[in-house]
Specification:
Number of helices: 4
Order of helices and strands: EEEEEEEEHHHEEEHEEE
CATH architecture of the largest domain: Sandwich
Helix content: under 10%
Number of domains: 4
Distance between the termini: 92 Å
Number of strands: 14
CATH topology of the largest domain: Immunoglobulin-like
Shape: elongated
Structural class: mainly beta
Strand content: 15-25%
Strand order of the largest sheet: 1-5-2-8-7-6-3-4
CATH class of the largest domain: Mainly Beta
């Protein structure tokens, strides 16, 4: 396969020939060296991945060449990357010291569900530079949660697909330390690195002890078999978490007994995490540089804008709460967060956390419509939407479209779980004007107190506000006379933009309803007087 120079750092030269390099953000290069060997990976997943582990093992020597843990998939430029979307794939370049057979393992996880990981385990024969797509798949058969699927779950290698190599699954799914990247401990009758394969007697994979320095690591896997304080079993980190569990830290940074004996004899000490001392204690080919990462979130200052909180770093997700934190360190607090009460009806949406910045009832089933929220129904009528004065004025039972292509009677305005049609509204055939009160035509027989005396006028129903002196009883009782004299000269008409401001007429606004999808519901009455100016609406 031809070289893909654009992915490699320093492609004009040999690069890192003596060790393995992992580069998450790769720059373009001018050209490729003849002896360069690399994998250019495009990594995707079946679902969200926030952090990943990556390991590479030389299958000829057995040496683990790369062991990177808890790497973020995000970058400051892409803080919300989701690699389950192919367009947001993670691109990695791995440079090898020489051609050969290598085993690659990638494990992805989220912070909220670290146990449910996704994995890819692939063998590669590396010659030159190769471009490969790798997809992480759900690791549903991994009882010991070591990131290696149980080989017993795939008899005859059926159903593996391209993400898993059959020969490199977990030979013992009950022991987390035993897998294809396990360190072989000589003479323990266990196949720690699964070298004998699935189904074999564990003792067949046990390596006879040839351990000159007594650190428990065979000389073939020890970078210095004359020094017990240098072994692949020693953990060398860039930082010790100050808030970590002391017992867990003691276990993680434990030294082989032979090393402790050597130090005691020399009157010397080694302090974890063994970084920045110029010594490669863990045999990975380099001494890790020390960093300060007080909250142990993987981001040291100044990249981490608050090194005292693990939930604040460039890879964190911005949260909408009362802490007023810039969770993802992009210098913007609570970007993308909606206000407590979007529609301004005095109630927050269902499930919105209550706190100092949002002390409203959080029971609004539609926080984008001020006409929809608990309390919009008339409490005196048992909370029903239909058959009430308030419901009629707000046209709750109308058959005309109100929002989202639905008729008003097919909307739950008061968030009680019932549509208006099932919450007091008569059958549509009995309520032609949609005011929530049934007429007597068509065999409809409503109670006398709820009989609509004019089922063709939505402004006429029992209890409706009466327009005084217009000759019609909007309340289905009687037309009230207008106050003052010369009643016959008063003419009521609907307000217009030009007449309403000049009329100085009384206006009635229906509380709790403004700017909803069904339009304004303010009821207004206007008078135009041709004679006596003392006449007013009743």
């Amino acid at each position: 396969m031809s070289a893909e120079c654009g992915w490699l750092p320093g492609g004009g030269g040999r690069g890192l020939a003596s060790r393995l390099a992992l580069v998450a953000l790769v720059v373009a290069a001018a050209g490729c060296g003849k002896d360069q060997h690399a994998l250019l990976l495009t990594v995707t997943a079946t679902r969200l991945v926030e952090r990943f582990d990556m390991q590479v093992r030389d299958l000829v020597s057995g040496t683990v060449l790369l062991d990177r843990r808890d790497e973020p998939v995000t970058t400051p430029a892409r803080p919300n990357r989701d690699i389950s979307d192919a367009a947001q794939a993670l691109r990695l370049a791995i440079e090898f010291p020489a051609r050969g057979r290598y085993l690659l393992r990638i494990v992805g996880r989220t912070a909220a569900n670290a146990e449910q990981n996704q994995v890819a385990v692939r063998e590669f024969v590396i010659r030159g530079v190769q471009r490969v797509a790798v997809k992480l798949i759900a690791n549903d058969h991994d009882a010991d949660r070591d990131g290696f699927p149980d080989c017993a779950a795939y008899p005859d290698c059926a159903g593996l697909g391209e993400s898993l190599s059959c020969d490199f699954l977990d030979c013992d799914d009950q022991e987390q330390a035993i897998n294809r990247f396990g360190l072989e401990v000589c003479g323990n009758q266990l196949d720690d690195d699964c070298s004998a394969g699935c189904g074999a007697d564990p003792s067949a994979g046990d390596e006879p002890c040839k351990d000159a320095d007594g650190d428990g690591v065979p000389g073939s896997q020890d970078c210095n078999d004359a020094d017990p304080c240098r072994a692949p079993t020693i953990k060398e980190d860039a930082n010790v978490c100050a808030a970590g569990d002391e017992a867990a830290q003691a276990l993680r940074y434990a030294l082989p007994q032979a090393c402790r004996d050597k130090l005691a004899a020399a009157g010397a000490t080694m302090s974890p995490p063994y970084c920045g001392d110029g010594i490669d204690q863990d045999c990975n080919g380099r001494d890790v540089a020390c960093v300060v990462d007080g909250d142990c979130d993987g981001y040291p200052p100044p990249i981490d804008c608050d090194d005292t909180r693990a939930d604040v770093n460039p890879g964190a997700v911005e949260t909408c709460d009362d802490n007023k934190l810039d969770n993802n360190c992009n210098q913007v607090v609570d970007e993308g967060c909606l206000p407590c009460d979007v529609d301004g009806d005095g109630r927050a949406a269902l499930g919105v956390p209550r706190g100092p910045s949002c002390d409203l009832p959080n029971d609004d089933c539609d926080d984008f419509d001020a006409g929809v929220s608990p309390g919009t129904a008339e409490s005196g009528a048992g909370g029903a939407e239909g058959g009430t004065v308030l419901g009629a004025l707000r046209r709750r039972c109308a058959a005309a479209n109100e929002k989202d292509g639905k008729a008003a009677r097919d909307v739950d305005h008061d968030c009680d779980g019932k549509l208006a049609a099932d919450d007091g509204c008569p059958l549509a055939v009995c309520d032609k004007d949609g005011d929530g009160f049934a007429g007597a035509a068509g065999g409809c027989n409503p109670p006398a107190a709820r009989l609509d005396c004019d089922d063709n006028d939505p402004e006429t129903f029992p209890g409706a506000p009466d327009r005084c002196g217009d000759g019609k009883a909007q309340d289905c009782i009687s037309d009230r006379p207008a106050r003052g004299t010369a009643m016959r000269t008063g003419t009521w008409r609907r307000p217009t933009a030009s007449t309403t401001p000049r009329s100085r007429a009384p206006r009635r606004s229906i509380p709790g309803r403004s700017r909803s999808a069904m339009g304004a519901t303010t009821i207004a009455m206007a008078w135009s007087m041709r004679a006596t100016p003392t006449a007013r609406g009743g």
